[in-house]
From TrEMBL, chain A:
A GO BP entry: nitrate assimilation
One Gene Ontology molecular-function label: 2 iron, 2 sulfur cluster binding
CDD domains (UniProt xref): Rieske_NirD_small_Bacillus
Keyword Iron-sulfur: yes
Name of the protein in question: Assimilatory nitrite reductase (NAD(P)H) small subunit
Pfam families, alphabetized: Rieske_2
Residue intervals of the Rieske domain: 7-103
UniProt entry tagged with the keyword Metal-binding: yes
PROSITE patterns: RIESKE
Annotated keywords: 2Fe-2S, Iron, Iron-sulfur, Metal-binding, Nitrate assimilation, Oxidoreductase
From TrEMBL, chain B:
InterPro entries: BFD-like_2Fe2S-bd_dom, BFD-like_2Fe2S-bd_dom_sf, FAD/NAD-bd_sf, FAD/NAD-binding_dom, FAD/NAD-linked_Rdtase_dimer_sf, NasD-like, NiRdtase/SiRdtase_haem-b_fer, Nit/Sulf_reduc_fer-like_dom_sf
Cofactor binding notes: Binds 1 siroheme per subunit. Binds 1 [4Fe-4S] cluster per subunit.
Name by which UniProt lists this protein: Assimilatory nitrite reductase (NAD(P)H) large subunit
UniProt source species: Fulvimarina manganoxydans
Binding residue positions for [4Fe-4S] cluster: C638, C644, C678, C682
Pathway terms, separated by semicolons: Nitrogen metabolism; nitrate reduction (assimilation)
Cofactor requirement: [2Fe-2S] cluster; siroheme; FAD; [4Fe-4S] cluster
């Protein structure tokens, strides 16, 4: 694990329902933290690039979420809008502590090449 | 990168930029000047904005994000005052910009009749948004009067818009009949009649002498001495190409800036496009040729070969309800013959002008259904002598080869608009189908947006698909539920029952879903089927519900929620109203509104406040109104025999009885009901999913109506004598629908699919069956007739939904 300074414990894996999401308030707005069917976690900004819809309220499928306002589909891994539409939100690094199952969030952006789900470290 | 400067952000230059970015977004660094303090919008749609049919936001073609994404430097609200060709710079009011290539797209300016009083406040032209806004503003004053000078396209659209906004409008037109450049006398006469019927006064052969008024316009005086009062005068007599800049820069200018077929001016680094252009002696005033020019400019800028040529044009008037069409040349002259059709009773007039065996002109009024076909005959110079006898009746009357229903669509030009909501034209749809290899309507919607808004053009889009894909397109093939499966809704429902599948993972496993956990389309559908088919056994999967049904409130555009409690049958009480008032104040709820469903909506509630809001409403006895659900919504009722002098039965009582029994039930689509106490039908029962009309003899049970995207009157299911029977029939009917309906299929669509006979056979003709359905509904209700608000207000269900998981807002290190 990297330095304790850059990782914030935000709760337990079980705090988020499978195929669900919860919000985390941060200095640059609300993030949505998602849990997939396979217990991976991802964090992206909670603002749809289309008209700002709260992505945390959308339906989660595979590693995507469908925005509740007008159905854009956004990749949880990259924050990019999938399909024919365009746009992106920022994605952040999250990981699960394998011992305690705590979810940890880093407030620096995940790099696009190495999307972070460190479910199995 | 080369520097491209564009003067004027109008219809023509907007298209140039679009084509440029489509082909090579990196070719130029672009600066865009516009004298108007805004970017590109669809100028021709100012008329619907004026009439109130559209808003300015609807007609913006390029918004801020578009300019940012394409890295266009915008200098809006800044006029260009000079072009210095020697130094290759453009001089704007706020500074200079150098260019490698320059586009002049300054459009034109309205022509103002040089009469006394033309400078008075209240005298305007009709060209841009500001003019439109002045008109809208002036029309707000009750009884205000306007004069429109000019009875051409623009003037008439202005007049019709002002009239729709309630103004008293007179059109003053110099020529002998309206739109004399596009219409012949007969059509001009019919148009005048039509406008007069709308309350617009039309004066032809009327010459404006002066405009009266001292500090503000007060009226218009005509040459014959007539005075017409007016607080607003709109001049729409014509336009003049804006060429001053080009002239001063020493470019070759005739009536407008002269260009060659590649749209270059006399300076090969300078292009001109739009209404400010003259090509082979022709000027332009309609968008179709400008769009063609725009394509050419974009190609030329990228050093590709493309040449502009003048094509046949057609005209339509954008006044809702005035159907006219004109194209070509219809002047009488030697060697020409004409064919005329009149149907005075229907206000229909058609005139075709032939030269030799070609159609050279067409004027149509009242019925323009064949306009595209005629226009095509003209453009393609098709010989028409063989069909001369029946030509005037249109395409359908041409014997010989059997009539192809697709022909009309096939004949449409590529730039014909198919989807009005999203402004998608035929070429874009067929092009995308071919290019991307699309085969389903959903794909076409996703890629082109065509028919994805109001859906009224779905039929046309399907025809285009059939045209483009030929036999491989079969709209009647079973539509798979979504991309995750090849099975349609009907098959999935049947298999869930037959194989006794009782959870979403089971369904996906057994029915060989192609994705690991479905998508936002199939999961809510499967969840509904399982809820409906296995009450008491299936555990509702909240993550497969759309947010509104998951948190039992309607999400709003800003992410807040609205809350609508039930008002049984539309009845309320002081206690309920007081509780609502208290909640609104306590939680600072910004809006309270009466809904179209006759109850009260509290809008703008913060998600975290929802449980507390519900707790307070629960305390006053109120439960969720399910305004968010594919579920029983409202049961509207009228006052009925309780109060009304015409009431025949207790309509309020029956409404309440139904709602109290059926609330909480989930259905394939939403279910709205109403009970009216007599055939006057004040509860509007005949446009509901289920409606009852009470009569002296009993109860007429209606169903399968709707008044949303489609308006459909109900069908009568049956007539019964007692309230108990009515109640039983309604409950059984809804259960049948719950068991057979496809997810999101409203009752009227279900009826259309399964047919009236099968429904009557189950609910009306066979009492045993009816009871069966009734019992199954009643059983299901023992699980679902629960207030979802109470469950959540107590914190027992889904507590996590309403609180953030963590608050890291005080951590600073993250700031970028
Ligand atoms: C609140 C209300 C408008 C109002 O301010 O009056 C409303 C608001 C919405 N309507 Fe409606 N409809 C409202 C009465 C109606 C009516 C009138 C009626 O119920 O008598 C109709 C036409 C009748 C009908 O349904 O046939 C109506 C036809 C629609 C439709 C078109 C449905 C269709 O099948 O054609 C939609 C879209 C849909 O359901 O997919 C819709 C959808 C919506 C949604 C849910 C849009 C959405 O998905 O977010 C709106 C939610 C706003 C909110 O958060 O409150 N609303 N809507 C009305 C609530 C009534 C209630 O008390 O529950
Ligand atoms: C109300 C209305 C309805 C219409 N309806 C139809 C219709 O139904 N069908 C149809 O085909 N046509 C219609 N037209 C005509 C159509 O809008 C025009 O043909 C088209 O807009 C011309 O495009 P353009 O780019 O040449 O000029 P414009 O769209 O006028 O754009 C020119 C732009 O250049 C700017 N400009 C001018 N000089 C300068 C300068 N020196 N510096 C900076 N900027 C400058 C202007 O502010 C303007 O924004 C309608 C027009 C109006 C006004
Ligand atoms: S008509 Fe209904 S769906 Fe449309 S804006 Fe109004 S409330 Fe929303
Ligand atoms: S706000 Fe997300 S799709 Fe529109």
């Amino acid at each position: 694990m990297t330095s304790a300074k850059s990782w914030h414990r935000i709760g337990q894996l079980t705090d988020i329902p499978k195929l669900g999401a919860r919000c985390v308030l941060t200095p640059f707005g609300r993030l949505a933290v998602f849990r997939t069917a396979d217990d991976e976690v991802y964090a992206i900004e909670d603002r749809c690039p289309h008209k700002g819809g709260p992505l945390s309220q959308g339906i989660v499928h595979d590693t995507s979420v469908t925005c509740p306002l007008h159905n854009m589909v956004i990749s949880l891994k990259s924050g990019k809008v999938l399909g024919p539409d365009e746009g992106a939100v920022r994605a952040f690094s999250v990981r699960i502590d394998p011992e305690t199952s705590a979810i940890e969030l880093s407030l620096t952006e995940a790099s696009a090449e190495a999307p972070y789900p460190v479910a199995a470290e | 990168m080369q520097k491209l400067v564009v003067i004027g952000a109008g219809m023509a230059s907007g298209r140039v930029l679009e084509h440029l970015f489509e082909t090579d977004p990196t070719a130029y660094e672009i600066t865009l000047f516009n004298a108007e303090p805004r970017g590109n919008y669809n100028r021709i749609m100012l008329s619907p904005v004026l009439s109130g049919e559209k808003s300015y936001e609807d007609i913006v073609t390029h918004d801020e994000a578009w300019y940012t994404d394409n890295q266009v430097t915008c200098r809006f609200g800044e006029k260009v005052v000079a072009i210095d060709r020697a130094r290759k710079v453009v001089v704007g009011e706020k500074g200079e910009v150098p260019y490698d290539k320059l586009i002049v797209a300054t459009g034109s300016v309205p022509f103002i009749v040089p009469v006394e009083g033309r400078d008075l406040p209240g005298v305007i032209a009709y060209r841009d948004l500001d003019d439109t806004n002045i008109m809208i503003e002036r029309s707000a004053k009750p009884g205000a009067k306007a004069v429109v000078i000019g009875g051409g396209l623009l003037g008439l659209e202005a007049a019709a818009g002002l009239r729709l906004r309630g103004m008293d409008v007179t059109v003053v037109h110099l020529a002998g009949h309206l739109m004399e450049r596009q219409l012949d006398e007969a059509a001009g006469y019919l148009l005048k009649k039509d406008l007069e019927r709308r309350g617009i006064a039309v004066l032809t052969k009327a010459s404006t002498q002066k405009i009266l008024g001292t500090s503000h316009v007060e009226g218009v005086e005509l040459a014959d001495g007539t005075v017409i009062e007016a607080e607003l005068v709109v001049m729409a007599v014509g336009i003049r190409p804006s060429v001053q800049l080009a002239k001063e820069a020493g470019l070759e200018v005739g009536r407008a800036i002269t260009v060659d077929a590649t749209m270059r001016t006399s300076d090969s680094d300078i292009y001109a496009v739009g209404e400010c252009v003259e090509f082979e002696g022709t000027l332009f005033g309609l968008v179709a040729p400008l769009y063609e020019q725009a394509k050419v400019v974009a190609k030329s800028l990228l050093d590709e070969e493309e040449r502009f040529s003048v094509k046949e044009l057609s005209t339509k008037l954008k006044v809702t309800g005035c159907d006219l069409f004109s194209a070509g040349d219809f002047a009488e002259s030697e060697g020409r013959e004409e064919i005329v059709l009149r149907d005075p009773a229907k206000g229909v007039y058609r005139r075709l002008v032939l030269e030799g065996d070609r159609l050279v002109g067409a004027v149509m009024y009242g019925d323009t259904s064949d306009s595209n076909w005629f226009f095509d005959l003209m453009k393609n110079r098709t010989p028409v002598s063989e069909m001369r006898e029946t030509l005037i009746f249109g395409q359908a009357y041409q014997g010989g080869s059997p009539l192809d229903p697709m022909a009309a669509v096939a004949a449409l030009p590529d730039d014909a608009e198919i989807c009005g909501c999203n402004g998608v034209c035929k070429g874009k749809i067929t092009g995308t189908i071919t290019e991307k290899g699309l085969t389903s309507l959903d794909d076409v919607r996703a890629h082109t947006k065509a028919s994805s808004s109001c859906g009224t053009c779905t039929g046309l889009v399907e025809q285009l698909m059939a045209l483009t894909l030929g036999d491989s397109f079969n709209p009647n093939a079973v539509k798979p539920m979504c991309g995750c499966t090849d099975l349609g809704h009907g098959d999935v429902r049947r298999l869930i029952k037959a194989k006794e599948l009782k959870s979403i993972p089971e369904v996906m496993q057994e029915l060989e879903w192609k994705t690991s956990c479905g998508c936002a389309k199939c999961r809510p559908a499967l969840n509904y089927y399982l809820v409906a088919d296995w009450p008491g056994e299936y555990v509702d999967d909240k993550q497969s519900r759309f947010i509104n049904e998951r948190v039992h409130a309607n999400i709003q555009k800003d992410g807040t929620y609205s809350v609508v409690p039930r008002m049984w049958g539309g009845m309320t009480s002081a206690k309920e109203l007081r509780a609502i008032a208290d909640v609104v104040e306590k939680f600072d709820i910004p809006s309270v509104k009466c809904t179209g469903g006759a109850r009260i909506d509290m809008l703008g509630v913060k998600k975290e406040d929802l449980p507390a809001v519900w707790a307070d409403l629960n305390a006053a006895g109120m439960v969720s109104g399910a305004a968010y659900g594919k579920a029983l919504r409202t049961v509207k009722s009228c006052v009925g025999s309780d109060w009304c002098r015409f009431g025949t039965q207790d309509s309020t009582g029956l409404g309440i009885r139904i709602e109290k029994f059926m609330w909480g039930s989930w259905t394939p689509g939403k279910v709205k009901m109403a009970v009216s106490g007599c055939p006057r039908n004040c509860a509007e029962a005949t446009c509901k999913d289920v409606g009852v009309i009470c009569t002296e003899a009993g109860y007429e049970i209606h169903f399968a109506g709707a008044a949303g995207l489609d308006i459909k009157g109900t069908e009568v299911l049956t007539q019964v004598a007692t309230e108990d029977e009515a109640f039983e029939v309604i409950v059984a009917l809804v259960q049948l629908y719950r068991e057979q309906g496809h997810y999101l299929e409203r009752m009227y669509k279900w009826l259309k699919r399964v047919g009236m006979d099968s429904i009557k056979a189950a609910i009306v003709d066979d009492l045993d069956k009816r009871r069966h359905y009734f019992d199954r509904f009643a059983y299901s209700q023992t699980f679902y007739r629960k207030d979802p608000w109470a469950e959540r207000a107590s914190g027992a269900v889904a507590a996590h939904e309403f609180r953030p998981m963590a608050d890291l807002s005080s951590f600073k290190e993250a700031a970028e």
